[in-house]
Known about the structure:
- This protein is of the alpha+beta class and 339 residues long.
- The protein has a single domain, classed as Clavaminate synthase-like (Double-stranded beta-helix, 4-Layer Sandwich).
- Helix content is 25%, strand content 25%.
- Strands 1, 2, 3, 4, 6, 14, 16, 17 and 18 form a nine-stranded mixed beta sheet that branches. The chain has a four-stranded antiparallel beta sheet with strand order 5-15-7-13.
- The two termini are 30 Å apart.
- It binds fe (ii) ion.
Amino acid sequence: MLKEMVKTLKKQSVQEVHVPYEAANKLKNALSNLRFREGNEWLNVREWLGSVVKHSLNDEVINSIQGFKSDDDQCALIIRGLPVDGNLCATPYNGYVPPSKVPLASAIHIGIYQLSQIEPVSYQNENKGFLFRYVVPALNALNEKSSHGSTFTFGHHVDNPDLPLACEPLTKRSGCPEFLSLMALRSDLKVRSNFILLDNLIAQLSRGVVNELCQPNFRINRPDSFGQSRSSRLPILVIGEDGVMLCRYDKENTTPLTESAAAALVMLEAQLQNESLKQHVVYQPGDVLIIKNQRLLHSREGFKSRSDGADRWLARMFGMSTLERIVPAFPEFQHIGKD
Ligand SMILES: [Fe+2]
């Protein structure tokens, strides 16, 4: 099996596309009068939002968005230059504003998911089940290693890693998010987000190490963003459909439980320091990054919040290829998963 897996390591890539001025303007005008409040109201009109995005953008950007989900080689897509709301409120240091405060960005974000046929999802115990999480240097979490932290580098990780990966069976809990997107509302040009593509990382490891990482000999704790603590004994790497590798490594929440698991983790972490594997993104307002959460590792460097109302502010959303990977927490909201 491992031999087959090595044969099928993909040539993963990152695509970057730019939205022309005219397309951005058309999108802004088409979405200028939105009146919705909570996330689920936005989801009710997502078909319309998808068609507005489709009819406003140019072919190159549309094709990249539509092709992203099913193209195994594509692991990250960066769309630059989308319009954002002109009269933004101050960066929400408590981590929350209703999406109606940023209607244009929220509408475009959902419209892009619709166009790419990715289902927007959230989790009952993470971010209070809200669809959008605002990645900000929250004043009550400056020292946290989470999307609300800032001071410390937030090490390489996959989001919500203790939930079942795309090739693992579901029982009572929803699956780990397959997609994760970030839309920049305010940027800080000094702050880099890094990522390492999984297959490039695995190619640097011996078969013995990869085999060890595929054993369920690691304790994976729930990340800080969940309002509950839990740990599970799981493998870090899983061989999915057609030999595609999936990953649940999370620097802050992974503990090896055997000597050989610890040795393999040392080898993995040594490669995470390998500068030649790292790619980075610096966001500007209006940039959207969509990644395949289980196919790469992402991290954010530490920074100092100015606390002046104009700090870095990103909107995050999770996605699934199908709602079958979600165990609904409430019958009326099929996109909010039990976790
Ligand atoms: Fe993350």
